C-alpha cells in the first residue's frame, strides 16, 4: 500500500521542532534559563568569596601605642592598624588600650595589661576581634618562649599536647559543597528549558483546536505523543547542553582558587554529563506532557507545570541539604544523575553500573509515561473533556 | 462507501445518537442536514473513530474505525468541526504535514501539496504563515489538508461556514469534481441552500435519528411541499436551529 506511513514519529518530531524553533518565546525560555541560572549563581559565589577572603586591614583605635612600639609593629604586620578615620555611624568602636606600665611589666616579667574594648556580640566584627585576639596571643607566646629559653627551659614543656590537624578535604571535595548547588542548576535546566514547548504542543494544540484533526490521522496516539515528547526533549537538551557549556566558562571568571576550590570539567566529563541529561530530558518532558495534555488551555497548563516543577526542585534540594546518603538514590531518576554529577565534581571515581541503571530506569519510566499519555488520548473523555 | 448502522451514543443523560442508519455511496454527495444539536458532529466523529459508539457501527469501505482506526483513517479526508492552524507554519507546510502523516513525503508529497493548493486557488497565500489568515483562508488550508492525500472518502463538518461567495464556489466545484472521481462525500450542514445545491442525497437528522432520507425532490414529494425548506421544517417539526 503506497499510503503506508513509514515513520510518523519522525514526521511529528520534525514538524514540532520546526514549529518550536520559530516560536521566539520558547527559544528565549530555553536560553534564558541556561544563561541566567549560572550567572546568578556566579554573582552569589563572587559575593561569598570576597567575604570569605577579605584581605583588608582591621582598623582599630589604639591608645598608648607609644608604650609598646614592638607590639604595635607586630599587630601591623598582622593587618591590624591604627585607625585614622572616624567610625561609621552605628558601628561600635574597637579600642585597644596599652597600659603605661607596659615596659616596666615586661621587664619584670609581670602580666602587662592590654584592654580590648568592643561590642563582642556584634556579628559583623566577630572576625575582626578574633584576628586581634589571635595576633596578641601570638605576640604573648613569642615573649613566653623567649623568657623560658633565657631561663634554660625548653618552651615545649608548656605545650603538652600538639594537636595535629590533618585535613583530608581535597580541592575537589571542598568544592563539592559549593558546586552541589551549581549541579542543581544543570539538572533543573532540562526541566525548565523544554517546558514552554511541552505546553505548546499539548495544551496549545487543544487551545488552538487542532487536536481533533491530528488525532484523526492515521497514526497511533502513542506515536503522536512520542514524536512530540522527542521534540520537546530536544529543546530541554538544548538548554541542558547550554548550561553545561556555560557554567565552566562563567566560573572561570571567579577567584575560586582564593578559597581553595577548583572547578575543572574537561570535555569528556562534559560529554558524560550531557549523555546523562538525555534520558532526564525525556523524563522531564514526559511528565510535563502528562500534566499539560490534561489542561484545556496554555494558562491552565502553566499553572499545573509550575507545581510540577516543585517536584524535581524539592527532590534535588532535599537530597542536597539533608545530606541524604542512601544507595537507592544512585538508581532513581533525577537523584541518580544528581549523585553521578556530584561524583564527577568531587573527582571521585565514577560508579558506572548505577549510572547505567539510573539512565535505563529514567528512560523506561519516561516511555511508560508516554505510553500512558497515548492511551489517555485514545479516550474520548480526555480528548473532548466529557 | 460509508455505512452507518444503528449508531447509538449517549453522553450522560443526553442521547446524542439514537439508532442512526444511512449510507454514503461512492461517487455521490451525501448531505447530513439537521438543526444544531441534532447529533451531526457526534455522528461524524464516530465514523472516523474519535468517539466510540455505545452500539451499532460505522464502516468505511467495510472497515470499522473503532476497531482498526489507522486502516480506516488512511482512506478518509477529514474537515473537522473545530480546526485550528499552526500559526507559525506556512499554509504549504501545514498541508505538507498532513500529507506526510498519510505517507506522502519528498517529491510525492510536494507534488500532492502543490496540486491541492492549486486546486483551492491558494498559491498566493501558500508560503505565508497562518497568522493573520482570514476565516476563508483558514478554511481553505483545512480543506487542502483534508484532500491532499486524495482520499476515497471525504467527511466534512459544516465546510462552508465563514466562506465568501468565491470560496463557496470553489468548494462546490471541488466537491463536484471529487464526486466525478468516485469519492464518497459526506458532509454535514444546517444550511438548506447548500444542501439543495450540492447533494445527491439528503439525510435529515433530528434528535439523533434519521427523520427522512432521499433526494431533494423525494423529500419535497414526501411532504407535499415544493421547497426543501418547507419540507425540512415539516420533517423535523420545528424551524429552530436551521438556516435558510
UniProtKB/TrEMBL annotation, chain A:
First and last residue of the signal peptide: none
GO cellular component: plasma membrane
Protein's UniProt keywords contain Membrane: yes
Pfam family membership, one: ABC2_membrane_2
The organism of origin for this protein: Pseudidiomarina gelatinasegens
Origin: domain of life: Bacteria
Keyword Lipoprotein listed: no
Bilayer-spanning residue ranges: 27-49, 176-199, 229-251, 271-291, 303-324, 352-373
One of the record's GO molecular function terms: ABC-type transporter activity
Name assigned to this protein: ABC transporter permease
Keyword list, A-Z: Membrane, Transmembrane, Transmembrane helix
From TrEMBL, chain B:
Source organism, top-level taxon: Bacteria
Keyword hit for Transport: yes
PROSITE patterns hit by this protein: ABC_TRANSPORTER_1, ABC_TRANSPORTER_2
Keywords: ATP-binding, Nodulation, Nucleotide-binding, Transport
GO molecular function, one term: ATP binding
SMART domains xrefs: AAA (SM00382)
Residue stretches making up the ABC transporter domain: 2-232
InterPro entries with a match to the protein in the record: AAA+_ATPase, ABC_transporter-like_ATP-bd, ABC_transporter-like_CS, ABC_transporter_ATP-binding, P-loop_NTPase
Family named by the database record: Belongs to the ABC transporter superfamily.
Protein name: ATP-binding cassette domain-containing protein
Species assigned in the record: Pseudidiomarina gelatinasegens
Amino acid at each position: 500500500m503506497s499510503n503506508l506511513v513509514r515513520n510518523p514519529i519522525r514526521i511529528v518530531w520534525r514538524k514540532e521542532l520546526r514549529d518550536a524553533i520559530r516560536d521566539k518565546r520558547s527559544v528565549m525560555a530555553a536560553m534564558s534559563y541556561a544563561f541566567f541560572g549560572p550567572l546568578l549563581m556566579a554573582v552569589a559565589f563572587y559575593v561569598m568569596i570576597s567575604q570569605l577572603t577579605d584581605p583588608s586591614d582591621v582598623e582599630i583605635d589604639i591608645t598608648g601605642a607609644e608604650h609598646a612600639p614592638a607590639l604595635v609593629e607586630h599587630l601591623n604586620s598582622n593587618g591590624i592598624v591604627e585607625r585614622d578615620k572616624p567610625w561609621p555611624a552605628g558601628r561600635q568602636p574597637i579600642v585597644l588600650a596599652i597600659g603605661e606600665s607596659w615596659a616596666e611589666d615586661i621587664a619584670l616579667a609581670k602580666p602587662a595589661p592590654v584592654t580590648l574594648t568592643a561590642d563582642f556580640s556584634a556579628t559583623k566584627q566577630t572576625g575582626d576581634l578574633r584576628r586581634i585576639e589571635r595576633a596578641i596571643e601570638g605576640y604573648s607566646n613569642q615573649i613566653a618562649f623567649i623568657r623560658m629559653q633565657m631561663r634554660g627551659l625548653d618552651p615545649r614543656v608548656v605545650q603538652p599536647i600538639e594537636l595535629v590537624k590533618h585535613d583530608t578535604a581535597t580541592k575537589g571535595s571542598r568544592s563539592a559543597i559549593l558546586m552541589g548547588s551549581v549541579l542543581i542548576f544543570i539538572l533543573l535546566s532540562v526541566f525548565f528549558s523544554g517546558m514552554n514547548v511541552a505546553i505548546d504542543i499539548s495544551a496549545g494544540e487543544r487551545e488552538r483546536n487542532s487536536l481533533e484533526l491530528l488525532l484523526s490521522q492515521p497514526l497511533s496516539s502513542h506515536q503522536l505523543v512520542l514524536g512530540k515528547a522527542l521534540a520537546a526533549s530536544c529543546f530541554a537538551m538544548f538548554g541542558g547542553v547550554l548550561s553545561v557549556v556555560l557554567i565552566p566558562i562563567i566560573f572561570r571568571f571567579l577567584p575560586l582558587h582564593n578559597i581553595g576550590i577548583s572547578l575543572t570539567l574537561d570535555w569528556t566529563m562534559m560529554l558524560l554529563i550531557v549523555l546523562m541529561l538525555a534520558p532526564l530530558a525525556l523524563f522531564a518532558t514526559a511528565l510535563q506532557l502528562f500534566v499539560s495534555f490534561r489542561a484545556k488551555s496554555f494558562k491552565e497548563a502553566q499553572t499545573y507545570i509550575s507545581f510540577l516543577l516543585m517536584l524535581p526542585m524539592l527532590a534535588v534540594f532535599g537530597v542536597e541539604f539533608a545530606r541524604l546518603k542512601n544507595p537507592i538514590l544512585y538508581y532513581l531518576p533525577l537523584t541518580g544523575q544528581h549523585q553521578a554529577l556530584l561524583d564527577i565534581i568531587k573527582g571521585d571515581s565514577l560508579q558506572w553500573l548505577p549510572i547505567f541503571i539510573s539512565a535505563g530506569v529514567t528512560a523506561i519510566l519516561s516511555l511508560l509515561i508516554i505510553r500512558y499519555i497515548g492511551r489517555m488520548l485514545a479516550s474520548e473523555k480526555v480528548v473532548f473533556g466529557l | 462507501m460509508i455505512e452507518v448502522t444503528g449508531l447509538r451514543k449517549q453522553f450522560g443523560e443526553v442521547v446524542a445518537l439514537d439508532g442512526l442508519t444511512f449510507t454514503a455511496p461512492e461517487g455521490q454527495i451525501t448531505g447530513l442536514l439537521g438543526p444544531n444539536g441534532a447529533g451531526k458532529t457526534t455522528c461524524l466523529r464516530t465514523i472516523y473513530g474519535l468517539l466510540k459508539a455505545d452500539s451499532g457501527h460505522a464502516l468505511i469501505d467495510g472497515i470499522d474505525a473503532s476497531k482498526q482506526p489507522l486502516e480506516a483513517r488512511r482512506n478518509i479526508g477529514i474537515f473537522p468541526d473545530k480546526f485550528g492552524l499552526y500559526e507559525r507554519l506556512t499554509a504549504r507546510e501545514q498541508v505538507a504535514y498532513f500529507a506526510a502523516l498519510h505517507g506522502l513525503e519528498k517529491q510525492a508529497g510536494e507534488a500532492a501539496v502543490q496540486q491541492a493548493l492549486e486546486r483551492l486557488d491558494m498559491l498566493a497565500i501558500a508560503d505565508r504563515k497562518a497568522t493573520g489568515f482570514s476565516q476563508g483562508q483558514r478554511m481553505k488550508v483545512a480543506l487542502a489538508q483534508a484532500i491532499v492525500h486524495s482520499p476515497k472518502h471525504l467527511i466534512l463538518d459544516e465546510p462552508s461556514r465563514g466562506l465568501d461567495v468565491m470560496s463557496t464556489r470553489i468548494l462546490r466545484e471541488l466537491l463536484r469534481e471529487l464526486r466525478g472521481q468516485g469519492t464518497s462525500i459526506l458532509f454535514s450542514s444546517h444550511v438548506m441552500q447548500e444542501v439543495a445545491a450540492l447533494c445527491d442525497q439528503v439525510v435529515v437528522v433530528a434528535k439523533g435519528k434519521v427523520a427522512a432520507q432521499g433526494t431533494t425532490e423525494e423529500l419535497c414529494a414526501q411532504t407535499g411541499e415544493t421547497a426543501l425548506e418547507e419540507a425540512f421544517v415539516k420533517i423535523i417539526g420545528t424551524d429552530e436551529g436551521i438556516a435558510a
